Amino acid sequence: MLAGELTPRELAFRIHQRFGHELPLAERLANLDDDYDVLEYGDRTQAQVDADVTAEALRLAPHPRVPTEPTDLPT
């Protein structure tokens, strides 16, 4: 998303789909994906949620990447 390849909503959706609310590091993005689903019932705009997703992505960017699949399998 920070490279312009995804919208904030797409990033939040993909993280939510992949990790749900189980991964503490990504839970804020999962919660923000939920926020997109209830925009019409709340007092926030999509631009506000987009800004929160962007802020969270910037907060997470310095963290080292962790592979989602094991790289060293036991022999």
Any chance you could write out the topology, listing elements then pairs?
Elements: H1 8-19, H2 27-37, H3 46-60
Helix pairs in contact: 1-2, 1-3, 2-3
Describe this protein's structure.
By secondary structure, the protein is an all-alpha fold. It has one domain (8-60). The protein has helices at residues 8-19, 27-37, 46-60. Helix 1 packs across helix 2 (27-37), helix 1 crosses helix 3 (46-60) and helix 2 (27-37) runs antiparallel to helix 3 (46-60). The termini are far apart.
Q: Which band does the percent of strand residues land in?
A: under 5%
* Total number of helices: 3
Order of helices and strands, N to C? HHH
Any idea what the shape is? globular
Mean pLDDT score: 89
- Computed Rg: 14 Å
Total count of domains = 1
Are there runs of 5+ residues with pLDDT below 50, and where?
none
The largest pleated sheet is described as: none
Estimate percent helicity.
40-55%
Structural class: mainly alpha
**Distance from first to last alpha carbon:** 37 Å
Number of strands: 0
Gist?
The chain has helices spanning 8-19, 27-37, 46-60. It is an all-alpha fold and 75 residues long.
Features:
75 residues; mainly alpha; 0% strand; globular
